[in-house]
Amino acid sequence: MEETDVQVRARTFVASVDISDIQSDLAPYVVAANAKVRKEELGEGESGTTITTPKGKHIITVNSLESEERQRFTICHEIAHIVLGLDSSHTEVPPWSFAKRDPNEMACDTFAAELLMPFGQWRERVPKEEPSLEIIEFMASEFGTSFVAAASRYASLADIPCAYVTTERGRIRYAARSTSLRRAGAWISPRSPVPAGSVAHRLRAAGVNDVETGEVAQDVWFENWEAGLDLWELARHYQAFDTTVALLWFSEEDLPEVERTRFGAKVEDDGGLAELTGEMSWPSGKRRR
Questions:
Q1: What is the number of structural domains in the chain?
Q2: Can you give the pTM of this predicted structure?
Q3: Which domain of life does this protein belong to (predicted)?
């Protein structure tokens, strides 16, 4: 199932219920999915499961030992399985593995994010200032989610070129990109090493819990990217889990000017002289290194 299809299904589901108090009570979603939630102590690494009774009632069980934010995400993730009709595959993929995570689980994560942080409410509440640690923490608190979930949502819905990256054990596990970055063809390869020269790489090498913001070259993170342009990187390292997350952003003016075909492929310069048009070529105003 394509990500856009999941988003449409999720937003249609959200529009069918009263979400005025959804930040503190997920009951409207649970009722709409014909489900019931139970909280029990489950095994380590087991966040939740769903069974369906012979009468069609769905019983969602979440791990009471996990944080409240994690339990809320699990409830919405399990509702996604119900609404989308997707089978579960909760086998954990080791961080060092090059195996892809199950597509059904990825789709349900996308659906869960739409439920926890509804599009309309998010756009109304997100501050318009420059991205910062304080803004991500504020949005996480507003919607009862983890810092990681809020950062990913922030990047996905940002008006400026923005990306969010999760890394584990020194390798990239997940990357979310804003619409402008997707259109520009910006790509961060999953399962590749955390790039040297990034703030995330520096924090992980230090081996302590820390948060840092710094300026790095855009082509440090993005593959096959134009050199000479900078971006801002806000990185946070969790030493106990060997996990580092990074929020990347820059202004629209600092997007590389790349010509693409109607199929999205980059048009390569053959090295010949540009055609004379009679018009002056002015500097683009982009900030170079």
A1: 2
A2: 0.80
A3: Bacteria
